[in-house]
Amino acid sequence: MFHALRQTFLISFHALLANKVRSFLTMLGIIIGVGAVVLIMSLGAGAQALILDQIKGLGGNLVGILPGKSDTNGPPATVMGIVITTLTADDGKAIASQVPNVTGVVSYSRSLETVTFSDTSYETNINGVSSDYLSVEGGGVALGRFLTNDEDSGVAHVAVLGSVAKNELFGDSDAVGRQIKIKKQIFDVIGVMEPRGKVAFQDYDDQIFIPVKTAQKLINGVNYLSYIRLKVNNEKNVDQVVADSSALLRLRHNISNTSGADDDFSARSLAQALDVLSTITNALRYFLTAMAAISLVVGGIGIMNIMLVSVNERTREIGLRKAVGATNGHITFQFIMEAVVITLIGGLIGICFGVSLSWIISRVVQSLGYNYSFIVTWSSVVSAVTVSIIIGLVFGVYPARHASRLDPVEALSYE
Length: 415
Known about the structure:
By secondary structure, the chain is α+β, with helices and mostly antiparallel strands.
């Protein structure tokens, strides 16, 4: 049995070598399809690992509260571009004073604005934050000081610059004590932050911090928040803080559990956020993989077409083999084996192509400063090889059956 299988494989391989260019062009659809599947699965896994690693960098004891209701596995409404105005700075103060195990609360009002100093203009993120920012988010002040609670409540015109924003506006000159203009409002620079880099895809250095009430009233013209972030004293208390914060906000927003009304906010821990992100990235990865797999069907159709041409070209050979005792099963197996060999070789080349391109892309992303991992799982390789063989079997059956049904007398006399 093994000897017969080996002989059939060798015959199929030599038949392919007899028409090298045509065999390669036939494989091309499989090469591209398998390569695309491996590439997308690799890039998807690497991107997912990068996103989750960035989020984990925030710390496991943080809780985020965003305006807008969301289901368990979906993003909040604000992510979809819907403006929700019910989350306020008083909500943040109430959580800080009434929810146990919370060590810090930061309220945020964010926008993107053009900042000017003298003749220099620079567009950056304006982060309206409350005075607990450093205790919750971390980081430190390199020069000067950070915002105080009195400055927040007094709507003070003061600003703390991230290191990138400072360099863009002042270069090597001192910034503390100078004045900048944001949306026609003059702000005194009271501090410069230490460089921190990017965490969770947010550049902590390319932003300017001002009191949250100042941002609301003078910059954004609103009385609601972008979001609230809490710091919990212990990771074991995070779930309880989420529950307690949610209960307090429902009470403050007059939302009754018995009436079945939806929350107008979303409170999630880091672990919950990671679960949501994993669900979203997995769905996106599988969708893109399915789109790439369509090219495998196109490649399979090409194989079937070429195999039919091969059957016509080798009609006399088929007749001769039948005349010396080959059965319909032998002929069918021979041509199915040829289709499988084409797809298997194409699949192996496609895997090499996909893996190589994935490695190149990973190196490019790493050169941009991201902690991106080159990930190729055995499951993706095995899946690609399996799909290649299945494509060969499925699209090789019709040409093989067509070849096996040829009448040997007519086949021998075929011109």
